[in-house]
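REQUEST ID: PR-0412
SUBMITTED BY: lab tech R.K.
PRIORITY: routine
TASK: structure prediction, single protein chain
INPUT:
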Amino acid sequence: MKKRVYVIGMGPGEPEMMCVKADRILRECDTIIGYTVYVNLLREAYPGKEFLTTPMTQEAKRCEMAFEEAAKGKKVAMVCSGDAGVYGMSGLMLEIGASYPEIEVEVVSGVTAALSGGAVLGAPLTHDFAVISLSDRLTPWDKIEKRLACAAEADFSICLYNPSSKGRPDYLKRACDILLQFLPEDRICGTVENIGRQGETAKLYTLGQLRDTEVNMFTTVFIGNSMTKEIGGRMVTPRGYRI
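STATUS: complete
OUTPUT:
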């Protein structure tokens, strides 16, 4: 029987928002590996496990660590926030896994921030939408600019991940400037910070107001399409059902 390593999307951080299968495997596994910030959210819920972490920018090392531990016969889980396949580790794990043919990789889905944050705001993504990360650590900024422009021109609702950091304090403003070339200043937008965790906050803005709003890496940003509206303080993008 082949050894196996699991790549698990742990959701936004609140235990109740983790998928049942992900929780079951984490309870059964011997070792939990991941980015330090995410693993620290799990320590209390899964006592007695071996926890191994690496800081940001050491993703490949983290993956190799998971395979090496699995090769020892341990049941290993690599955890990611949200869903492992949405800006997560599943792709890299499968790439590196090609060098470990004796170990199978199973990807376990989770709830990504577009969905959990959308639920907090109301229903901003009920129709077609695009998800774009503003981090240019792995994607050139000119490509991000093109994706923003194309999504705006196509009238997608847009969800922005990684909108700002200490090294990129003005990236949301830069993104809004691109969007404002195609969208009106009064386009409804929203932000959710610390989804499913202590300090969760949600706010609605116009696109013009969003441009000058301070956000951080724990904020998910939503820009509505031409049909999006505010209903009772909630952000709603109609699907088009007859009422």
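NOTES: The mean pLDDT is 95.
REVIEWED BY: pending
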